Structures
1.
Amino acid sequence: MRIDVSSYIPGSSPVHACDARVKVVLLAAYSAMLFFVRTWTGLGLAALAFVAVAAASGIAWRRFFGLLAPVYAVAALAVAFNGFSLDVWQAVGGASDAPGGLGDVSAGVLADVPPVVLIGSFGLVPAGFARGCFFAARIVLLVTASLVVTYTTTSTQLTDALCAFMRPLRRLRVPVDDAAMVFSLALRFIPVTAEELARVRDAQWARGAAFSEGGLRARLGAWQTVFVPLFVGLFRRADALAVAMDARCYGTSDVPRTSLARRRLTAGDVCVLVAGLAACAALAAWL
């Protein structure tokens, strides 16, 4: 059993060289913009922006779209629940009378197409199908945009960016350094947990555990033999980490932590930030 966990991919592209704080801010702006865009033109421009940035990163396209099976399932549900209705005529009337909002998106060329009755009152609503495709594309763009940041930014850079964003809270005596350390440890334990899960699962499978045989109850019982030692092992790792941090006197001083090489925003980073925020604001406001 092999689990491929999304992580940093080394590279020398302009996206890799961009400051982590800029990438996090632009990701937040891009995500917000996707929820404000209501036309297919705006969504197409947002997709074009993602394609341009992903191409500039130099990362293979399969890394963005090859591991999104759960996302595709959610997107398919969005299309199905919006495109089909148990009462097609009532669904059309309700959609036309619905107040405007973040969920009121354009149906494109299918807006005036009448519904197709399949069985009784159940049928396909073309306008709802188009809106479902809109929502599905929005979900996929949200996830893939976040992958651009995680693939081109190390966990240390993300932690430093979080610490920089929270630095003003030090005046309120918020433990910024501790919060950044917790965030860094959480990121580090994701691949560790995946590796431990694969190792324990392989060990139990070698001992005859039937993970794909029998009914649901039997399969859940087989996975129980995996999760119990997995959590025991994780608690052991956490205890060893706590002992190591305590032995190094972590947290015993009130002096703020320093950084060996604190990165400063360059003129190029500022230009990218301003241009990206302006583009996201323009798409959200006009499209």
Note: Residues 1-153+269-287 form one domain.
2.
Amino acid sequence: MQEKLRAVSRRRTILFGLVALILGAIVLWNGNLVARLGISFLSLYLMGTGLSDLFFRFVLRRKEVSSLAAFWRLLIGLGLDLLNDYTSLPLHTILLILGLYQLFMAFIYGVTYFLFRQNKIKGGFRFLLDTLIYTVLGLSTIIAPSADRDLQFVFLGFYLISLGLSNLRDGFFFDNDEDRHTLKRRTRISLPIVIAAFVPAERLNQFNRFLQGRKEQADLAESLQDKSWPEEAKEGFSSMEVFIHTSQTNFFGALGHVDICYQGQVISYGNYDPFSERLFGMVGDGVLFKVEREAYIDLCKKESQKTLFVYQLQLTKEQDQAIRERLAELDDLTYPWEPSSRLKDGKPIYPYHLKKDLEAEIYKFKDSRFKTYFVLSTNCVLLADSILGRAGTDIVDPQGIIAPGTYQAYLQYELASKRSLVLAETIY
């Protein structure tokens, strides 16, 4: 079964890489044609599904099929096809979306640059440069989509080619275990952040569908995949875990959260001081806490209504030592913080609860980038990557922005391959 899953994952990675590579090349050749064909296929899909649902509803008498939704899909598909044939509105809408996405990225880089300046941290110039580039591109595309159309397609084409080559490399070397013990990091081209952000929620939906087909649902602590390694092969290795949180309670819960667990102690970073929040809660003092593993898992399941995807990592002595050194560096950057007992919305704040009931160690940062938390860049994933990066995890994002979903997609890839970095996934 393990070999079959591995083979499927390998073929899927190669196929995705080929599709992205070919599509990227076609976009560079004629992006306008690709966009119009894509819109045509979308309209045909909407009309096809609408007609099939109407057939099921009125001919086969399937009452669970919504006739109203079917009519809407049919009308939207027909309208989209007509607009695509006789106007440039659908194409301009795509360009408008690309422009808005670039302005969104400019906002992220701009806030990050401001926080670098505020905390007197070196290296912020690259974020200023990215802010200016993305602002100019985004605004010019929104103001004059026809003028910037070819330039946008060039960027999109090169991105798709890079994404395809990255996945082809992963696929062809899927079972290559040659350099698993090195601390070398390579650049991995990831999905756009607006797509990768929803990977944890989709993984949770997959697990829920898995449970619906089972009679035994009492214990959610299911080990879904576990690599079998002989004990003698594990000598000289130590264990570490990565927690990916997700929930269906709200939008931000669906986006997920990342923690590190080392030697039975969970290390978590986030905006845990609500009294320091600003910019609609996206920015605040960076808080790090350390807490006992089992107590924390119980808290997440029972009180926070979260599902935890726990990935067990196997570290060599060299990797373990590098991570120890990084944790010591982080300790030097922090100072103990006593959470306020003041109530927020009628309840004690989260770190006060951790300190009082779980005896957690709570810290704030004296300096460094982590002194100020920003949900879209200096977040839990960046701290986790700053630790795991010392072990050579192949998850470097060229833009420096990594969503929890990006990390989970990488861990799932490592779990499916024969490499020994990720040994098992357990769901709580």
Note: DSSP finds 13 helices and 13 strands in the chain.
3.
Amino acid sequence: MRQAILVSACLAGGFLLSACANDDAATVERAFQDVNVVDETDLNDVMLTAADPNEAASYFSRSLQGNPDRIDLQRGLARSLVRAKRNVEAVASWKKVITLDGATNDDRVDLADALIRTGNWDAAEAALDEVPPTHETFKRYRLEAMVADANKEWKKADSFYEIAVSLTTRPAGVMNNWGYSKLTRGDYAEAERLFGEAIRQDQALFTAKNNLVLARGAQRNYSLPVIQMGQTERAQLLHTMALAAVKQGDVATGEGLLREAISTHPQHFEEAVRSLRALEGA
């Protein structure tokens, strides 16, 4: 009898230990799953910021093979393709994103951005039209301004640029775009003002410095603006000013500026030398 009781007790203990073991295994498995999710999230972030964009695109593409409906992976692929300047592929990827559960208005704005990068302005405008007016973000209004520029809808462009500037703490880039819009319209004084504002916001923005010189040259003002610049930058800006002078018909002034650019550059300035030889040959 005692033997039977002992056997029963052993069996019960065995079942209890088995249950405990199963519970422990399940707990450990869940813990590893949680760790894997955290690790994957960290890796995704690294791929989107620090990794080579083509390597990142390959990583997200491989990840999607087993998880085709994971919107975070599809977004990662689309953003990596944009970083890699593979814009046609990026458009296709963003179009996939907006069909998935969890798609947002930001995704539609990113699709419009990719479409603009491919030069498909009409499709970009259509994508932005799908975004409700209540979605007020810097990127949305910056793109709206660019589309209005492409359509030569100047009042709309100015309104959108103004809103975009108010929605960011780093407005230098959009001010530069706005200034270039004014430059193409022939409003050189306003373009000069906007380029100056862009440079005050970001003194390293060479594109705005170059555009500022173009705006001054278009007004036959051939003196360099008083802005922070290195020796190489000064030479490059003198070269731009020289070409602006030649375009205005002030050839002698252009030649003098080219000579100054060549003597200012700390190294051999081949581009300016070619420009000077072309003028002298003419």
Note: The first helix runs from residue 2 to 49.
